[in-house]
Amino acid sequence: MNTKGQNKRGYLMLAVLWLAYVTFVMNWVAGSSLTPQITNTFFGGPVDPLISEVVNYSITTARVFANILAAVVIMRLGPKKAAGLSIGLLMMGLVAIYIPNYWGYIFARMIMAMGGSMIIVYMNPFVSNYIANQKVKLGINAANTATYNIGTFIVAVLFTLFAEQLVSDWKLTMTFFASITVILFIIWLLGAEDFKVEQPTGNTEAYGYKQAFKDGFIWRFGLAFASFLTLYVLSLVSFKNIFDQYTLLNGSVTNLFISSGAIVGTLAGIAIGNKGGPRKPTLLIVGICMVSSFALALAFANAIPVVSYILLTISGFFMFVQYPIFLNLPHELKNMTPQKLTIMFGLFWAIAYAGQTIANIIWSFILGNFGYVPSLFFFIAVASVYCFLIPTLPETRPKEIRLKKVA
């Protein structure tokens, strides 16, 4: 077996999946940033917050179903075809732009979101199959978790520097972001290879969705991440327009600071994670820091904007100090296989996005009916759930393991 050549092919596929998800994020965030222009095209003016947020609801709802479906698809089609299908679905973002009906536009974006959700699930079996070294694995998983930040950062920079040009014709702007997917799809068709994801036989216990639904770890893990996503996704997607409307902050600049802080935080998370220290205390401390700094940023948003920008950067930093460590927890559990990882992450992402979608709907309802300040209290309360659930997760780096490493 040509292991060296196989590793090169593996890294190529991981790179394409990484770029595909970055492109998906750019398409999603750019669409959210252009929500006023898009809704004006379809409705001729401003709409209720529930209507303006319906694209984000539909995208996250589609992701719930896609995450559960991902494991079934990869078992039937194999990794190459399954991942290729997910990249192909991203191209519906290009189709959506030219559909003349708003609900047709939403439906096409939902299909695009299904592709994005399947990609984030498929990253795990590809990493498990091609990467054996735990430190390298943590670094690659960290790079995968940074995809959302990279995509958001690129869009934030472009909308900060070229806001007038990008806003003037939303269809042209969205076409640019969506077209990149076509190139990645062609590269995948030419360069990808297959491998087996079946669970090994022998003493390894069978693990399917029946076992996953009964696994308390996945539910606690998923609900904790739903809380995190409420803080993270709303801060970058929904809060851009909210900051512009209700505060002295510039929404594009806030996205720039949050995502740039998150990129630096990812590097810090890799360094901390590779030290092999206990996971739960680290995640709890960092979680408290990210929620409290964001809450303080909201408190200063209409008083001292500079302080808010600094606090938002700090919050973004702490968000992604914990992110690679948190999402690497299943990889650190005993007897893990590519199939088990696919099923666990499929259900995990479904729980996380379902929880975040419900929180998003309630938040926008409170915003539209009770106002900005009550919506913030709800937002911070939901984000704080993360800190309460972290202590309930298993410690994947117990004391005896760390002592062996020292010895």
UniProtKB/TrEMBL annotation:
Keyword field contains Disulfide bond: no
Record flagged with keyword ATP-binding: no
Domain Major facilitator superfamily (MFS) profile: 180-407
UniProt keyword terms in alphabetical order: Membrane, Transmembrane, Transmembrane helix, Transport
Topological relation to the membrane, as annotated: Multi-pass membrane protein
Main subcellular location: membrane
Entry's localization field: Cell membrane
A Pfam family: MFS_1
Transmembrane segments: 12-34, 54-75, 82-100, 106-127, 148-167, 173-191, 217-239, 251-271, 283-301, 307-329, 341-366, 372-393
UniProt protein name: MFS transporter
